[in-house]
Amino acid sequence: MKDIRIITKKCAALSLDAASRILMRKNIKAREQEIAEAFQELAGPVQMRLHPKAALVTGRYGRTDVLYAMLTAGNSVSRLIEKYISENNRLKARVAEAMAESCLLDFEKEMLLDAEKIWREEGYENSEGLKPLRDIPAGMQKDIYEMLDAGRTLGLPAVCGDELNLPKFMCRIYKPGGADSLFVQLQTEEENPAKIRKISCPVGSSLLQVLQENEISISAYCGGSGICGKCSVTLKEGELPVTAEDKKIFSKEELLNGRRLACKAVLQSNVAISLIHPKESEFEALGSSHADYITLHSANKYQKGDYGIGIDIGTTTLAFSLLNLQNGKIADTYTAVNPQRRFGADVISRIQAANSGKKEQMQTCIREELLAGIKTLTEKNLTGQERICQIAIAANTVMLHLLRGYSCEGFCRYPFTPEVLTLEELTFEEAFGRRFAGVFQPKVTLLPGFSAFVGADITAGIYACGIRQSEKTALFLDLGTNGEMALKTGAELFVTSAAAGPAFEGGNIRWGTGSVPGAISKVEITDKIPRVKTISDAVPKGICGTGVIETAAELYKAGIIDETGKLLDMYFEKGYPLAKNAGQEWILFTQQDIREVQMAKAAIRAGIEMLLLRSGTSYETIDKVWLAGGFGYFLDVKKAAAIGILPEELEAKTAAAGNTSLRGALMYLMEQNQESLLKILENTTEISLADEEEFQELYLNYMMF
């Protein structure tokens, strides 16, 4: 490794136009006059605190000579921004951030002149200048931080884990502008080899990012950190070196047969690959029954032919229902997979992707999928005499931010301040980026949320279940990658969210998959011999969320795992065999899979206990437990209680509530009563589990079976 070079310059004069463009790109809502006034007030303090600095070093990226760089605006301006955030002065914080970002962008242009000089001094030829790679692979930023010794050279804080949460900074990998391009040929197992698709990309590209950028559907549950194994591909031709992460996921035989992780594959030559993941279109999502009705409201004034569409944007799936607004009948339901899955399975992965430059791409893909769903419902069911009057959307806070194109930076650090939580009323064009295909333009309503991680889907669920209107004590649970829950007692509502991880949806499970035909969903073990049932009774492909819970419960009941979660010695190394897939490979449930279940169920159970503790409520006083969402709908409550996700005392009180997020959106369409919806948010206490000492103790206790 060559010596690290340091470049410092004075920040150029700050520009209101440049800062305004950055704010506009991030969809920060503020009037021009307000931005101008804030800019004028901040110009002096921000300019004084900006100390742009860069660290650079030459090295290798795969087989390509590159220049690694980190640029920072300095800690001083970051402290100023944090001060405005702590004072809840969000406009000043956002304007100051935009000013710092514009300084960094100007600094980069000047720095590149010095960088190219350094490049030549190191003995590299460069006839076309240095150009940054389009994207830096997940986890690479930390490697660059350590490579450049950024704590010492740039004065940046130390980092923990793989995610960087630093003062205003930029991470870059520059390569010669004339670097060669290469081709990726790909096909899925079902496709005709004669119809192989050929994609051009630069040398040194991440295979996963090439697939994502070309809208090739591929799972990336862990956001590209190399731990879930869901982005696996089969190398048919060419060379993809085996990485350390590959060795952890695949057996020697699988590696010899070409299995690789797309997220860790760096392309240095032409390759041909096969995609082996299930088709995203096969995923089953929970919608509404066509025969279902939404109760008519006394204030209903809709005319014959008036329709509305309710939409639930889930992290994994999307659900749409077409509602006859005159009589309350659900005319049709449509479900699809959230296309943002390819950027990560959970909200944390999506946040990281958005903050690393993929926000616009993520907004575009979700808008297109929503427009496709709306088009499908209207073309299938409406003749042209009817009209769509209203559209209501419920989703968690991150999904709504990605739909609107809002900045997700506020989700990364305490006190976790989203851009918007309030109810939003938009034109169709504001919501989806284009006008509705009809003369009448429907109004679009985004339902309000509680906080950064307890969103509008929970507001809609509480609304749908009538929890606020009831005098009874009720517990509401939506179990997923981010387990959101609410406890209503008296006039108070206590809410929280527990980071359960994606195990309940098949994520981070060795043979985990979504709810696709062939996913093992039911398991029984008798005399240590398993009997499994798959979705659609298809040939086994993997294990979905309910199958994961059932497997863990049955293994515990059969004595194959003990209370600590340890497998019997005969299964400890390779895992417990459940069934063979179409290729006669054993679908195994491994020791690591069990640990994933333990962490997920401990987070949920400890979250429930914290709600009870802070509200002064006991299990005995709870009258009803509503289990929302697709996972909860198909979950065997007895088996969930057997492994401690739910306490046994609540087993008989628990009922599946279905897709309450979608139903709440439909109810709002029918009632159009903002007051009753907003009352749900009143007298609410949010419990931040990260701040609760008791939560950590409870979490460790409930790791046991």
Note the main attributes of this structure.
alpha/beta; 705 residues; 27 strands; 21 helices; 6-stranded mixed β-sheet; Nucleotidyltransferase, domain 5
Describe the structure.
With 705 residues, the chain is of the alpha/beta class. The chain has four domains: 5-176, 3-Layer(aba) Sandwich (NADH Oxidase), CATH 3.40.109; 181-277, Ubiquitin-like (UB roll); 306-465, Domain of unknown function (DUF4445) (Nucleotidyltransferase, domain 5, 2-Layer Sandwich), CATH 3.30.420; 511-589, no CATH class. The strands form six sheets. It has a six-stranded mixed sheet, sandwiched between helices. Strands 26-25-17-18-19-27 form a six-stranded mixed sheet, with helices on both faces. The chain has a five-stranded antiparallel sheet with strand order 1-2-3-5-4, sandwiched between helices. β23 (576-580) and β24 (586-589) form a beta hairpin. It is globular, with a radius of gyration of 26 Å. 50% of the residues are buried.
CATH topology of the largest domain: NADH Oxidase
Poorly predicted regions: 190-194
- Compute the number of strand runs: 27
Which word captures the global form? globular
CATH A-level architecture of the largest domain: 3-Layer(aba) Sandwich
Number of helices: 21
Counting structural domains, the number is 4
Structural class: alpha/beta
Strand fraction band? 15-25%
